[in-house]
């Protein structure tokens, strides 16, 4: 870490994930970004240099900064997400460097599911590949609304203005479908560092921000992961755990989502629909009058109700839907086909419950991002299904709330998570 | 009752990290049958235990605390361990590497040699003996390139092994803790914290630490570019000489393989300044065990290390 970096506490946090096809340079870009912002310690750089020379890949293979597993270095690919941390005087970054291989799509979704921004890496000599589109599509479904697109390997493309323009055109064609709030396309060379942290004179046709400047310019998200203006949404507090007070009485522990919760608020406990009032809020900083999004709290209620883990305490002014059956969009990671009748263990907020697929309704065509009627999904396909749960769930549409609109499906035999689910139709425009 | 009026939106990233860690602690306790918290007496485990107490106030800690004792300890750390765990109201189990050696589970590497790697066997034996299905650890992803790859809830098979090529997807905040008997999870609530975050949080919450984290006069020898404390196990070899100087520890581990750094930082503020301006990583500066090979940590983690 460099002495010139700001010592004052950083108030601004941005989480971003790299996405794009294998070998387009995602890990190299993150290595470059970390080296050029001087986030790495001397011994870490030395270790990367040593490993690079030992494996005969030149003086320094920047991808080794994040590709830290033996198998990754042997093969020169990223297998699983690497998390790295960086801070500049402007903000603190949590970086998820995701794998590009289709085989590791579930790992990519793992990295992107909490991201505010996707750093899309495209090989400018090849353009947008199917896998790039798949990742763009998954990121959009996951609710990532800001894209920084790096037209990489511009040095190999002789800094050809047209190669850059082709990517700009392709992204313009997709922006509407992906419902992106912002798309910035930057011509870069991750290998040489052009337009990553320092402006480059190699692309006189480009006068926009560097990758770092673009990352610093995006409004920071809230870690809790909500989006689409959830301030209008009432409080959501999935109950995690019941805390017994020594003198009697119970406190309900959970993390606040949606609007802040106040002492005196009228609440409803779902799915049972019991009404009460908040009497007490305990935050990590002690007793408080209110608590906002992302805070882990425990609350006391005026009435002695039957509340257990998996129930949801919600603001009485805006209730989620309560149902045994939902329409959902899923990214399927299982190695077998997903068909109607398959049974899983579902986890939604803090509730785990058996679930059965009542129907597979459509699959998403990656080429044109349209839904095509289908009765099954293959590995790493995206589609829409109808799910029936053993217990009623309190859900919001994923487009309204990333916490109360998301769920996972777990294989009951292997305990492996096999699907990422989002309540409602895909968050894409036709 | 008149609770103090304050702004309750998360104010900075430390508040978010704190709440996220508490969320993880509560999820694991709810999802698993028999969790345990691994406590080394170092700064990360002190922060972790502090957060655990907070997560379950006023009910009290719903799990015991486990210390893997290599037998090569800093006395200041053992003293701190006992006081800190008592103040937290925790039940302490100690699993001893010496016992593992005496029982023939592992081979004594010899007087004064590092027992770091042997801890894995002692740890896995303790997990089996007490039938723990989840073990909280204070590991952070910024510590090492293999740790950077690990999930918050990290699955261990019946042999205690981590398979980095077969990690479970971990989406949103949906932590999934199901294991079958014999398998277990490692849970890392501090995954997204950096060394600097830990220190700033310690400063903010006034968390106690072992005194060796702050600069003090100590008799040391220089070996493999590290300053090792002269004690029962470490003596000058060959033409090594010992001398007294101001040092502090950046990490706490087995005495025989944990190096001190030259430092004048006697207060938290001074330590924070030192961390900000440091040019060498925490483990690079202080851990001989990470220097064996390119993938030391990955190899140990695969075997079931912390």
UniProtKB/TrEMBL annotation, chain A:
Molecular function GO labels: ATP binding; GTP binding; GTPase activity; sulfate adenylyltransferase (ATP) activity
Cross-referenced InterPro entries: CysN_GTP-bd, CysN_NoDQ_III, G_TR_CS, GTP-eEF1A_C, P-loop_NTPase, SO4_adenylTrfase_lsu, T_Tr_GTP-bd_dom, TRAFAC_GTPase_members
Keyword Nucleotidyltransferase attributed: yes
Top-level class of the enzyme under EC nomenclature: transferase
Pfam families associated with the record: GTP-eEF1A_C, GTP_EFTU
Enzyme Commission number(s) of this protein: 2.7.7.4
Keywords of the record: ATP-binding, GTP-binding, Nucleotide-binding, Nucleotidyltransferase, Transferase
Limits of the Tr-type G domain: 11-226
Protein's GO biological process: sulfur compound metabolic process
PANTHER family found in the cross-reference section: TRANSLATION FACTOR
Protein name: sulfate adenylyltransferase
Species this chain originates from: freshwater metagenome
